[in-house]
Specification:
The complex is a heterodimer of chains A (about 250) and B (about 250).
Chain A (H helix, E strand, L loop, with lengths): L1 H19 L6 H16 L3 H22 L9 H40 L2 H8 L3 H38 L5 H9 L4 H27 L5 H31 L1
Chain B lengths: L1 E10 L2 E11 L4 E5 L6 H9 L6 E6 L2 E2 L5 H8 L2 E4 L11 H12 L4 H14 L15 H13 L5 E5 L7 H18 L2 E6 L2 H7 L2 E6 L2 E6 L3 H4 L3 H7 L3 H13 L1
Parallel strand pairs in B: 3-8, 3-9, 6-7, 7-8
Antiparallel strand pairs in B: 1-2, 1-4, 4-5, 9-10
The chains are: A mainly alpha (about 250), B alpha/beta (about 250).
Chain lengths: ~250, ~250
């Protein structure tokens, strides 16, 4: 029964996505809404991303120093390992999970509230494709802005490690800088950006799907929001494995 | 005119509407009345296409909604205005933005023309000066009036109102009723109002369809309702002592 239910939900999701990806009724309205969504979903997430990134970057650097302190390992390894962790996993996957919580719950609750207050019915009655009108600008906006957030996250995390070097005597700043420049693989940045595109689509579309099909009242909107975050987080983790296998092997 | 023939609708094996037939006339306030759970909202949602009946015909001036293509339905919906129970105004738009919304989406008007039309509609519902406010800053009655202004912005042929008086005080309810009646006469729209407000029934019911447990029980107008001997209708309309006394008084006057 669970498998059948999951397949039914997946089918419903596919039909939902088909309705989302149609030509907008009014391009001018679409671009206006996309710009607003970039501001709401993307720009408004910058402070959270920067705060988390700077602290996690600092913690990663400290832990690297404490765990790989050995005369056999070169001192620049702290910078190198911090960089690799940030580029390969933190800036895309972990950030994706964080944003699934912030952006995903925001989208699911917004669309869910519109559903229970009949605003979506009002759009449909007017002849507006509500899926396309409400969801496509969110997906496009986040596809555009999530890579920007990832780049901010990379820079700020590495800066967090640098701050540890500056304000403590755990490792010298010059060694840390040397470490983050050593054995640099450009592809890792592209790998993180590609993953962020996939994750941004998952976060926005899954949250919108859960919000769009809410039935009931405020309690169900809350449940839909939670389900959206849980489902998109699981999908992000699953796709992280798949993409890592595909892109790094 | 809108005509429904043999509409049957079930949810989870429970039948809500049983072969309902009804006619809704242009230029008249057509009321669907009945107890909670009688199928009023399902009938209205079926007529506008938000719910798909198992069988039957829904004819908009002879055009069957059930046989229309998605594009035809989309075109038809541009001729429909709807007032929802909770107003369903867009929270992120101002009052002016809400009323302009259908104009932005479906007309080639310039910004100035759209603004003029929206302000005209707001003036028509006596909401001049509220255009810059957000829905959350308005009272329930004002929200309903904004929703009416939005519904008539495109000059619709058909206006649907789902419980327009719910949550409003009696005085505001009468204002909304009178507004709906006046607009219907002025623009010769086919207006369908779903209500269980007896003041509306006896005040603006020019064509009343009474639903009882999913069946069409009675059809008539507000003057015929006093003299009807339909027991279910009498039990519903004259359920309170006050309305029963009004009925007795009017009959004695005749």
């Amino acid at each position: 029964m669970t498998i059948i239910s999951a397949l039914e939900t997946f089918g419903k999701y596919c039909l939902f996505i088909k309705r989302v990806f149609t030509i907008p009724d009014r391009w001018k309205v679409f671009f206006k809404r996309t710009t607003l969504e970039i501001s709401k979903l993307g720009v408004d997430s910058i402070p959270l991303v920067l705060i988390i990134a700077v602290f996690i970057g600092a913690v990663i650097a400290i832990q690297m120093q404490l765990n790989i302190m050995s005369p056999l390992i070169p001192s620049y390894s702290v910078g190198l390992a911090t960089r690799e962790i940030v580029l390969l996993e933190f800036s895309s996957s972990i950030l994706g999970l964080i944003l699934a919580g912030k952006v995903g719950s925001n989208i699911a609750s917004e669309i869910g509230t519109m559903r229970v207050t009949e605003q979506i019915d009002a759009l449909e009655i007017m002849g507006v494709n509500s899926c396309n009108f409400l969801v496509l600008p969110k997906i496009v906006a986040f596809l555009i802005f999530m890579p920007v957030l990832v780049v901010f996250c990379m820079i700020t995390s590495l800066f967090g490690g640098y701050l540890v070097a500056i304000f403590t005597d755990l490792f010298p700043a010059s060694t840390y800088i040397y470490g983050i420049q050593t054995l640099f693989v450009e592809w890792y940045v592209w790998y993180a950006l590609i993953k962020s595109l996939v994750f941004s689509f998952i976060i926005t579309s899954v949250a919108a799907f859960f919000g769009y099909y809410v039935k009931g009242g405020a309690l169900q909107v809350g449940k839909a929001s939670t389900n959206a975050v849980v489902s998109s987080s699981i999908l992000i983790l699953l796709l992280d494995v798949v993409l890592t296998k595909l892109l790094l092997q | 005119m809108i005509e429904v023939k043999n509409i049957t609708k079930s949810f989870d094996e429970k039948t809500i509407l049983y072969n309902v037939d009804a006619q809704f006339h242009a230029g008249k306030t057509n009321l669907i009345i009945g107890q909670s759970g009688s199928g009023k909202t399902v009938l209205m949602k079926s007529i506008v296409g938000l719910v798909k009946p198992e069988k039957g015909e829904i004819l908009y001036n002879g055009r069957d909604l059930m046989k229309m293509t998605p594009d035809q339905i989309k075109d038809l919906r541009k001729e429909i205005g709807m007032l929802f129970q909770g107003s369903a105004l867009f929270d992120y738009e101002t009052v002016l933005g809400n009323v302009m919304f259908p104009l932005v989406m479906f007309t080639e008007m310039t910004q100035a023309e759209m603004r003029d039309r929206a302000l005209f509609c707001l003036e028509r519902v006596n909401l001049k000066g509220a255009d810059r406010k957000y829905p959350s800053e308005l009272s329930g009655g004002m929200q309903k009036r904004v929703a009416i202004a939005r519904a008539i912005a495109l000059n619709p042929k058909y206006l649907f109102c789902d419980e327009p008086n719910s949550g409003l005080d009696p005085k505001t309810s009468i204002l909304i009723d009178e507004l709906l009646r006046d607009i219907t006469h002025e623009y010769q729209m086919t207006t369908i109002i779903n209500t269980h407000d007896m003041n509306s029934v006896l005040g603006i019911g020019e064509n009343i369809i009474f639903l009882n447990k999913g069946h069409k029980e009675w059809v008539g107008d507000m003057s015929q309702i006093y003299t009807s001997d339909n027991q279910a209708l009498n039990d519903f309309v004259f359920a309170t002592d006050l309305f029963q006394e009004v009925k007795n008084f009017l009959i004695s006057q005749k």
